[in-house]
Every structure is written in structure tokens, then in C-alpha cells.
Amino acid sequence: MSLTSVADRPARRPVSAWLSGAGLVAFLVILPFGGLAFEAFKGSPSLWSHLFSTILPVALADTVILLGGVGLMTAAIGTLTAWLVTAYDFPGRRVLEWALLLPLAVPTYIIAYAYLDILHPIGSVQGAIRWLLGYESPRQFRLPDIRSMTGCILLLGMVLYPYVYIPVRAMFLTQSANLIEAGRMLGISRRGVFWHIALPLARPAVAVGVSLALMETLNDVGAAEFLGVRTLTVSIYTTWITRTDLPGASQIALALFFIVVALIAIERWARRNQRYATDSRRSRGLQPQKVSPSKGLLLSALGFLPVILGFAAPAVYLASEAWKRFRFAGVSANFLSEAGYTVLFASVATAAVILLGLLLAYAGRLWPGAGSSLLMRIAETGYAAPGTVVAIGVLIVLGSADRMIFHAGTQWLGVVTGLFFMGSGAALVYALAVRFLAISAGGIDAGLARIPVTLDHASRTLGQTPSGTFRLVHLPLSKTAIAAAALLVFVDCVKELPATLLLRPLNVETFATHLYGEAARGTYEEASIAALAIVLVSLLPVILLSRVGTTRR
Predict the structure, then answer these.
(1) How crowded is residue 241: how many other Cβ atoms within 10 Å of its Cβ?
(2) Would you say the pTM of this structure is higher than 0.70?
(3) Pairing of strands 88-89, 289-290
(4) Alpha-carbon distance 122 to 142, whole Å?
(5) Which of 195, 323, 336, 488 is most deeply packed, by most CB within 10 A?
(6) Inter-residue contact 67 to 276 (CB < 8 Å)
(7) Sequence-ordered alpha helix ranges (H) in 288-425
(8) For every residue of 372-390, which 3-state class applies, written as one string?
(9) How far apart are the first and last CA of the chain?
(10) 158: number of Cβ within 10 Å
(11) Do residues 495 and 511 lie in contact, with contact meaning Cβ atoms separated by under 8 Å?
């Protein structure tokens, strides 16, 4: 009997526990979206006409404008900064390479929270500007109100551009210097090389980065609401929380989900014929061009500007306000409970996501093909959907389950069960698992792909089952990928606002929900410590990315 036939024997089995488990995971991911569609179409036809005539036109218009503005801004900042640190050698370039990642540590709702106070008409910034210009009162001079569509686009663009910077810089680093030199020999300037050679080759990376930034824009509820922009996401939240209209919220969420699917389809259609190849073993990487001292200072200033606006300014503000709050009243009495709930929900959700991701990734390794690929695609659906869409779907499904359990308990056992899922926090953990499963499954799958398949064959020859091979071979060799995925998932769970707002149990506050409540009341200083804690936790994956993202020397 050959080694290959022994190793492939499990694949011939008609039923597998691993593949069945992966199918169950995919079903649990898609279940909230099925519940969402059921609830949306259960509503009366007059409700649909009401939405189309009143809520959807305004919300859809604001959403499209916001997506267009953020997309253009992130594409411009991310692409230009990536080219800046790749093509030119100037003072501070090495620091700027990783510093440009720092705005990733600032969630969208925190930058809105910070700048609402920083740029307040009677704040220190506008006061200093008026003093310089010779004005004495906000009635004489004030900056345009940050609570506007323009302000929302600028602030979101300042924290989301790294989604474009990371893949585009990686693409620039892998481009062959031979192509650049050929262009220069043909008389093309350095600027022309960027527009005619480097940028066209990097278009797939730009498209991927912009699509990720737009997904984050659609997921945002805090920044848009703080800044007075009525997006579809904000409309879902207000329809459920303010009006207690679950069918209406479901219909808006379903419309938003279709927009997300359309964005993904457009992004893939735009890249359908774009295939670029280069032999990285033979080609030389692009060498940065040395510039004059004056030009170097200018480039350095331009490069650090988005870092200052997107990270340094809000971070300094939060640290200052947190210190003032601490000196005045110490740490809030609820701080420890908020920290405990934040860590508890994030830890439980991370553990669940990692276990489910291991199941999906290993099932795909055991049985590669269209079936396992389809299951992986389904599992990634939750990450593409905004948190409010996932939360409404989970609310419908587990709310129905709670009602069934309550009726069964009271009628058959005489026991009042209460809200078993919604009251225990299980609904929030479920939503977080659906939302971030793609991070775990994708990261672990990439780690497993680096393990030679010959190790699987050797393990099977020695009599190990697929589960034994996973436990003794794959798990130890992929622990780095698992740890990295766990870190990313944990931080995303800590930052997640929409799902936490909608599904947290009663009388439970996390850092994110506490910050949202204080910002809604206008008491910015009260939540500064919680906001600073979120930013510090969010720095962890940024540090990881900066260590991984080394450049060619």
C-alpha cells in the first residue's frame, strides 16, 4: 500500500466529524442573516413603503456620500504615504514606516469623540486661532462645525487609511526595480513612474484596501451619530432602540447587507482581469531615492501629518483628559466592573472564535475542494456585514429561542427561565463570534498552509487519526498563527461598539458602551480613561504589524 493511499484514506470517507463540524459552524454563521430576512419580510407591505418614502432615501444618500468621500480619502492618503516611504529616502522614513500604522489603534467613534471636544468652539484650539487672528469671541470667528458630513469624512479617513497603506506598501515593495529603471531609461520622471507604472500595478491592492476601509465605515455607528450623519447603520440602531421597531430595523439591516454584498461584488469584478506576476527571487526591490535636505524635511512633514491628526492629537487629548479626571476624582467606581466585563466578553468570544476557526481551517486542510471552500466563504460573511446587521439577526434568532425556552419552562416544568441567551451575554458572544470568525479562520488557515503536507502523510503512516495529527503536529506548529489571530480578535472584540450596544445584558457596561453614553450626554471628560484604555489595548496588533512589516534593506 502506498504512502499516498494511506494518507488519503480519510478523504474517501463519506461522513467526517471535522467536515460536519465545519458545516455546523457555517450554518451558525448564516443563521442570523436568515432570521433577519424572515423578520424583514414578515413586516407589513405598508412598512416597506414607509421606509422607502421616508427613512431610506436620506439614509441611503448619506451612506453613499460618506462611502464615496472616505473611499477617495483613504485611497489617496494610503497610496501616497506608501509610495512616499518606499520611493524616497528622507529623515524619519524608518520611523514613519511603522508610525503610519498607529491610527489603526484609534476606533472611529473615539476619534469623533476626541475631536468634538478638541475643536469645540470655546475649546483651546479655536481659542488659540482666534487669539492669533485678533478675534475675541466665537461669534466673530469660528471654524466650520465638525458635526457635518465633511467632518465625518475627514475624521474617518484619518483613521482608516492604514487599510490601504498596508497592502499598497507591500505591493510597492515587491515590485521589480527593473520595471522602474526601464521607465526611467525611457525618460519618465519619478512622478511619472508612480502614475504610469507603480500605481497601475498596485491597483488590486488599492481596491482591497479601500473595500476594507468601506466595510469599517459601514460598521461605524458611534462616529456617524456623534457627527450628525444619518447613515443606514445609525438608522438601524435608532429604529430599534428609539422606536422598538424590530421589523423596520430588520428591513433597513437587510438593505444594508445587500449594499455590502454589492460592494464586495464590485471590488471583485474590478479586479477580475488584473493579474500581475514577478519573480521575486531574481528581481531587485525598489531602492529609495535620496533627496535634498529641504525636500526631505517637506516629505517628512507631509508623511507625519496623518499620523499627528489620526493618532497623536487624539491620543494626547485622551491622556490629558484622563489625567485631569484622575486628579480631580480618581478612577470611577464603575471602572473595574467595566474593565471586567470588557475583558470577560472579549476573552470568551476570542476563545470561541479560535476554536471555531481551528475547526474550519483544519476541515479545509483535510478535505480541500469546492465544498470546504464554500464553507469558508460562508464563515467569512459575518466579517463583511456591519455589526448592527449581525446584532439584529442574532437578536431575532436568540430572542425567539428565549421565548420558546420561557414558554416550555413555564408550561412543562413550572420554572421561569427568564432571558436565557439575551440576559446571560451569550447573544453578545454569539454576535462577536459571527462577526470576527473570518479573522481567526483566515489566519489559522494561512498558518496551516505553511506546514508541509508530507508531515500529514508521515503521521497517518504512523497510525495517527486526523484528530491525533491535528493535536500532535498541526497545533504545535501553528501556535504562532493562532496567537496572532487571537490577539487580533480580542482587540476587535474590545473595540466593537454596535453589537455590544444592542446585545449587552441589562445593567452591563463595557469601555465602549460607557464611552458612547458619556459622549451622547456631552460629558467627554468622564469617559476619557475608558477611551484611553481602548486605544492602549488597540496598540497591540499595531505593534505586531510593525514588527512583521519589515522592509527590504
Answers:
(1) 12
(2) yes
(3) parallel
(4) 9
(5) 488
(6) no
(7) 293-307, 313-329, 335-366, 370-379, 381-384, 387-408
(8) HHHHHHHHCHHHHCCHHHH
(9) 50
(10) 25
(11) no
Using one digit for the tens of pLDDT, what is the confidence trace for 187-233? 676 677 777 777 887 888 888 889 889 988 988 888 998 898 999 88
Contact 460, 379 (CB under 8 A): no
Report the Cα 238 to chain-centroid distance in Å.
22
Closest listed residue to residue 398, CA positions, set 22, 69, 35:
35
For the chain, what percentages of helix, strand and coil (3-state, to nearest 5) are there? 75, 0, 20
Backbone angles phi and psi of 277, in degrees to 5: -135, 145
Rounded-to-integer distance, Cα 389 and Cα 392, Å: 5
List pLDDT tens digits, range 388-439.
999 999 999 999 998 888 888 888 877 777 778 888 899 999 999 999 998 8
Q: What is the DSSP letter of 290?
A: E
Q: Which of 162, 538, 207, 219 is nearest to 383 (CA)?
A: 219
Strand, coil or helix: what is 275? coil
**Cβ atoms within 10 Å, residue 94:** 11
Residue 287: Cβ within 10 Å count: 13
SS3 137: coil
Query: If phi over 0 gives left and psi between -120 and 50 gives alpha, with beta otherwise, what is residue 507?
Result: left
Assigned C-alpha cell, 351? 476563545
Residue 7 CA to its chain's centroid (Å): 39
Q: Name the residue with cell 471628560.
A: 525
User: Could you give the percent of the chain with pLDDT greater than 70?
Assistant: 89
CA trace torsion 43, 258, 369, 9 (10° rounding):
-30
Residue 12 identity (one-letter amino acid): R
**d(Cα 528, Cα 518) in Å, to the nearest integer?**
9
Q: Which burial class, exposed, middle or buried, applies to 217 when counting CB atoms under 10 A from its CB (0-12, 13-18, 19+)? A: buried
